[in-house]
Amino acid sequence: MKIHLESGLGQNLIRAYALGRITINEEFYTTSLIVTPRQVVTEWPPVSFADLLAGHFEMIVPLRPEVVILGTGAQLRFPAPSLTRSLVEAGIGIEVMDTGAACRTYNFLMSDGRRVAAALLMIEELKQGID
Q1: How far is CA 114 from CA 16, 32, 41, 43, 107, in A?
Q2: The whole model's pTM is what?
Q3: Of 10, 28, 60, 63, which has fewest CB within 10 angstroms of its CB?
Q4: Is 3 helix (H, G, I), strand (E, B) or coil?
Q5: Residue in 78, 127, 121, 80 with CA at minimum distance from that of residue 102
Q6: C-alpha neighbours within 13 Å on the C-beta side of residue 80
Q7: Mean pLDDT (the chain, rounded)
């Protein structure tokens, strides 16, 4: 999905997202990442929701956002509170949503001048279960 929003010069704007791909400004990314208005951290290790560890959230603390938007892929899934404890202890808020909603929310908060970080897992194909 393409997002139409303009931002100030030098800010990271999420322009589009799709299965396995997120476009920030004019660059596209195919792995999980953290984006703030001023930087893109591509060395964020989790590949899927099941891979999330407490250390992955600890990596966000030095970025000093006021809120983290966690994009959990194609589906909304909530991490265990023990995983996000480092954010809470640092006084950083966390909102959890699917990655598409996280991209849109990040852009809105960023354009409003908020210190926001989006920790985004790639949107993956949903596997259909057989009953």
Answers
A1: 20, 22, 18, 23, 10
A2: 0.89
A3: 10
A4: coil
A5: 121
A6: 7
A7: 92
